[in-house]
Amino acid sequence: MPRLCLRRSKIPWQIRETRMSGNREELPNRRRAEVREFLHNGQAYTLGVSCFPNPRRVAEIFLSSRRPGSETEAIARDGAILASLALQHGADITTLRHAVTRGDDSSAVTAIGVALDLLAVADIGEAP
């Protein structure tokens, strides 16, 4: 899948396509998902998680809200897709948690940050 890179040129920013390096770990076509709900800034979110089978670790994250079609839900959904791609390319939850925006008290500022924090302390992804 091509990715886009911004490169400085005579045009303020020019977009060019490059290929991602590294191997993406493929998921089985049929896989179990666990679902949790949480609140963030007064908004209810549903977190769906599926795992690689062996060893069992988080492979995919889905986020949705009770406000379908809203910008807030779109941002959360896109963040979950990007986190899923990173996980499938070898990133771990701890690395992603350190990458998201945090407040002065070190709490996650975004829904994807809260979801990653929940995954870090939940038994999701742990061996049964």
Low-confidence stretches: none
Structural class: alpha+beta
Rounded to an integer in angstroms, the radius of gyration calculated over CA atoms is 16 Å
Write down the overall mean pLDDT: 83
Q: β content, as a range?
A: 25-35%
Name the helicity range.
25-40%
Biggest β-sheet: count, sense, barrel?
A: 3 strands, antiparallel
Question: Helix count?
Answer: 3
Oligomer: single chain
Order of helices and strands: EEEEEHHH
Brief characterization of the structure:
With 128 residues, the protein is of the alpha+beta class.
Describe this structure in words.
With 128 residues, this protein is of the alpha+beta class. The protein has a domain at 33-121. The protein is 28% helix and 30% strand. It is built from three helices and five strands, in the order E-E-E-E-E-H-H-H. The strands form two sheets. Strands 3-4-5 form a three-stranded antiparallel beta sheet. The chain has a two-stranded antiparallel ribbon with strand order 1-2. The longest helix has 18 residues, at 71-88. It is globular. The N and C termini lie far apart (34 Å). The model has no long low-confidence stretch (mean pLDDT 83).
Which structural traits does this protein have?
128 residues, alpha+beta, two-stranded antiparallel sheet, 28% helix, 30% strand
Secondary-structure map with pairings?
Elements: E1 2-7, E2 14-19, E3 33-40, E4 43-52, E5 57-65, H1 71-88, H2 93-99, H3 111-121
Antiparallel strand pairs: 1-2, 3-4, 4-5
Helix pairs in contact: 2-3
